[in-house]
Amino acid sequence: MVTTNLRSPQPDVTIVVTPWQHFSQTKASLESIYAFTPAPFALIYIDGNSPPHIQRYLQEEAHKRDFTLIRTDRYLTTSEAQNIALAHVRTRYVVCVENWVLVTPGWLGSLIRCAEETQAWVVEPLYCIGALASPTIYSAAPDLAIVEEHGVRRLHETAPLAGKPLVDMRQGLKRSRCGYAKSHCLLTRKDVLDRLGGFDEGFTSYQGHRDFSLDVVAAGGSMYFEPESVVVLRGPPPLAWSDLPLYLLRWSDAWLRPSIRHFADKWRISEDDYMLQGGVRFRNVERRKLLQPLQSVAQRMFGWRGRRIADRLIDALFERVLEPTVIARLERARMRTAPAVARPSATVLSVEGDA
Is a pLDDT exceeding 50 seen at residue 119? Predict the structure, then answer.
């Protein structure tokens, strides 16, 4: 039996924290949530096979802070982790937050106000990267749609203001409708998730963000961008050795290719669609970060031509060596312990707090 100890008064929102690509930001992310989120709220933390020191930290925090901790002894895709948590959500709103996200003061209240005032089904914050003192915009009011041109369906996506310093753009940012809600940090209504049947676990990679957004629009719902809610994404480098298995899986063909095929089949577009194949280009950039010193040396010695050669060598290393060996073994091991539909293998730890 699962017992989730909720604060009094009864919270109206559950924060669901799930793993993304690494575990190194676990402590900073969780501490930012408790530092900048006034009670009441419920919190469900999904621990997908974190290394032992992170597992111990989360168990200690669950005891101290009184939240529900659910651990699986396998690495989880985002959709799997979110769906495991949804089975235990009892509040009106759900906020899905990945474990590399640092929230800032007022983040949650702004999301809820936007949902209440606009009746939006989904609200996403202003995403930033870089230093907290001088962040750069990562995503602000993105748009996403399937368009048809000359009888061919294609994916259309925009990312306005990406790469711009926040200080230069802040005054011009306004609440607005958007066509795309990234799952790094999104607020939605529990009844919306019930209506849509949760998150599609056929998406092992981040194509699930796009799919969920298109499902919301297809069902007649609206999505809003709320710039008063600001979160910062903290990705590698650096990357701890214990982060490597999940990072390799996150940016692998084993997770990306099935997601692209599933998206193409579901939304009736070609797998070769330029925007859909953007996932491959983005994936390559992310995993090249593991060998960033090689890129830097090549660029210093031979300029941008050297950098391009280094990138091709890194891509070949992944495709010809790591994918068929290390990554293939990781995915086989993961699938051998795959939970059934009801996910009975998930261990639920509910700890009475010391409050």
Answer: yes
Mean pLDDT throughout 318-326?
97
CA atoms of 92 and 106, how far apart (whole Å): 19
Structural tokens at position 217 = 């629009």
Residue 249: name the closest of 329, 310, 340 by CA. Answer: 329
| Residue among 45, 96, 47 at smallest CA distance from 74 | 47
Share of residues in the chain with pLDDT > 90 (%)? 86
Query: Could you give the CA distance from residue 216 to residue 35 in angstroms, rounded to a whole number?
Result: 32
Sorting pLDDT into bands at 50, 70 and 90, what band is 133? confident
pTM: 0.91
Spatial CA neighbour of 123 closest among 133, 115, 134, 132: 115
Supply the Cα-derived Rg of the chain in whole angstroms. Answer: 20
Does residue 350 register a pLDDT over 80?
Answer: no
The answer to whether 60 and 353 have CB atoms below 8 angstroms apart is no
Structure tokens at 245: 């298995």
Answer whether residue 193 shows pLDDT above 50: yes
How far is the C-alpha of 207 from the C-alpha of 288, rounded, in Å?
Answer: 20
- Per the listing, tokens 């790591």 go with 322
Q: How confident is the model at residue 38 (pLDDT cuts 50, 70, 90)?
A: very high
Q: In terms of C-beta distances under 8 Å and separation of at least 24 residues, what long-range contacts does 291-294 make, across chains too? A: 291/317, 292/237
Residue with tokens 């100890």: 5
Q: How much is the average pLDDT of 26-46?
A: 97
Q: Give the tokens for residue 307.
A: 């950098």
Cβ neighbours around 137 below 10 Å, total: 24
Q: List the beta bridge partners of residue 68.
A: 44, 350
* Both structure tokens of 327: 């990554």
